[in-house]
Write a structure and sequence with these properties.
Elements lengths: L2 E4 L22 E4 L8 E9 L3 H12 L4 E4 L11 E4 L2 E4 L5 E2 L3 H6 L2 H4 L1 E3 L3 E6 L2 E6 L5 H6 L8 H15 L3 H5 L7 H8 L3 H16 L8 H13 L2 E4 L5 H8 L6 E2 L4 E5 L10 E4 L4 E10 L3 H7 L13 E10 L11 E4 L8 E3 L1 H4 L9 E8 L7 H16 L1 H4 L3 E12 L13 E3 L2 E3 L9 H18 L4
Parallel strand pairs: 3-4, 3-15, 4-12, 9-17, 15-22
Antiparallel strand pairs: 1-2, 5-6, 7-11, 8-11, 9-10, 13-14, 14-15, 16-19, 16-20, 17-18, 18-19, 21-22
Helix pairs in contact: 1-10, 1-15, 5-9, 7-9
């Protein structure tokens, strides 16, 4: 059955923004025919493959230029890795995700007020030696910070070095940080600054390990500096209706009917040679699409490698970062604190890296009279069942909070995210050229910083490279 797609329509931009040779793309209405017996080729301005943050950012940039496009998504929803499921009235983000308000690209694209961002405590509670110890941002929680100076998470000197590290990154621009040539693994940077093993093992490994999904802290120092700068300038938050509201907000601004769900791309093909213009996009169901201006690949790196097989030389990729996120439900009187704080495992034992109570941050994450628990592990744990992992987490947390509370929690769902982030160990290039072929461009967090912001930046950069090549900007 034909599926009609209304492409973006509007009055033409000035001639210098839309050359005559592409004027026919304006005000076009197309249809995509799903047929196993007849090949139907549909043409539009640009084909974007993947409706995660990078693809949505690319679509947003095209819409701003009034360039027609189709955004193809293989799954049943937008967002890529940034999605929220509703299960029994609970909002379950797909993996541990925090939105930092200081992300520069995000500030340009998103309406923070509409997201109704709910703030975390600016610091953390670290489980070490059988009890919890506070690490606090002195500029936001002065007295908590003063009280924590003598706790065993690090020395007074360590806490002074944190202040110096903050000052060091704040005097640099984002561009200086991401383009730095003197990168090292984060752990080497921190040791070079002079941090003790105590604060490295008890705070930095669980905190930044939870951000990078890399407890060894082998991730590039460029990413550490960028994140540290954003943390210093902004706040850790969650949208009140789940992390998936971020892609939802981006998609809501796009022209109607420009997104095709459940449309998996099988291959990219250059029928007349690799220098003949943009590749043809062949869907798994037999549909054929062509972007007259180009194709933007905005899918995860493993899928990019498959689709570019035969188009470019194989790229040796490092193993991706993986994580497991386990959710539990509880009664409100069965959780130990009401503070919107992140808990870190500083004991260097057990499988838990970090955990928190989402309903302490945003009450909307659970139905009335219920609380939600989120626990994060680093790695894939492929040899362990969901039930086994949930049982071990309950045993481990019983040692943190007491059996009387934790044993009453009920396992709700487990998410195994095999590609949580690209591996960004040195050496890295965080400003990659998005053009990889005639009319073919790449976007995704693997092209720049492995962050929400990096995904958004990469989508914009891919489209701007396309527009420059076509003389549209």
């Amino acid at each position: 059955m034909p599926l009609a797609i209304s492409l973006p329509t509007s009055s033409p931009p000035p001639p210098h923004l839309f050359p005559r040779r592409h004027a026919s793309l304006r005000n076009r209405r197309v249809s995509v025919t799903r047929s196993s017996t007849q090949e139907n080729q549909t043409e539009t301005g640009v084909i974007i493959v993947g409706a995660g943050l990078a693809g949505l950012a690319a679509a947003t940039r095209l819409a701003s230029q009034r360039i027609p496009f189709l955004l193809l998504e293989a799954s049943d929803g937008i967002g890529g890795r940034v999605r929220t499921d509703i299960v029994d009235g609970f909002f379950l983000d797909r993996g541990f995700q925090i939105f930092i308000t200081a992300y520069p690209e995000a500030k340009k694209l998103l309406d923070y007020k509409a997201l109704d961002l709910q703030r975390f405590y600016a610091g953390a509670k670290v489980f070490y030696g059988g009890e919890f110890h506070t690490v606090a941002d002195p500029l936001r929680h002065l007295w908590d910070s003063v009280a924590s100076l003598t706790n065993p998470i690090g020395s007074v000197v360590d806490k002074g070095l944190i202040a110096l590290t903050r000052a060091r990154v704040l005097v640099k621009s984002d561009e200086e940080i991401l383009m730095a040539s003197d990168e090292v693994p984060t752990i080497d940077l921190l040791r070079g600054i002079g941090f003790s093993d105590e604060i490295l093992d008890r705070f930095f490994r669980p905190f930044f390990g939870g951000i990078f999904f890399d407890r060894d802290l082998e991730t590039t120092s460029k990413l550490f500096d960028f994140i540290f700068r954003c943390l210093a300038l902004g706040e850790n938050t969650l949208p009140s209706m789940g992390i998936g509201e971020i892609p939802n907000q981006l998609a809501a601004k796009l022209p109607a009917d420009c997104v095709l769900m459940n449309s998996r791309v099988a291959s990219l093909e250059y029928p007349n040679g690799s220098d003949s213009g943009p590749p043809v996009v062949r869907l798994q169901d037999g549909g054929v699409l062509k972007g007259e201006l180009g194709v933007v690949l905005a899918v995860e790196q493993p899928q990019v490698d498959k689709l570019l097989n035969g188009i470019r030389e194989p790229v040796v990729s490092r193993p991706a970062r993986s994580t497991v996120c386990i959710y539990f439900t509880a009664e409100p009187d069965q959780i130990p604190v009401q503070d919107p704080v992140l808990f870190l495992n500083g004991s260097n034992t057990g499988i838990i890296n970090n955990m928190f109570f989402p309903t302490n941050v945003a009450r909307t994450y659970a139905p009335p009279g219920k609380a939600l628990v989120s626990v994060s592990l680093i790695g894939s744990f492929e040899d362990r069942s969901d039930e086994d992992l949930a049982a071990e987490v309950i045993r481990e947390l019983s040692g943190w909070f007491g059996e009387s509370l934790v044993m009453s929690w009920r396992h709700l769902r487990t998410y195994r995210i095999h590609f949580a982030q690209p591996n960004q160990c040195p050496p890295t290039d965080l400003v990659k050229n998005p053009r990889v072929g005639s009319g073919l461009y790449l976007s995704g967090d693997y092209m720049t910083s492995a962050t929400f912001d990096g995904a958004l930046v990469s989508g914009r950069r891919a489209v701007e490279a396309l527009l420059r090549e076509k003389g549209l900007v």
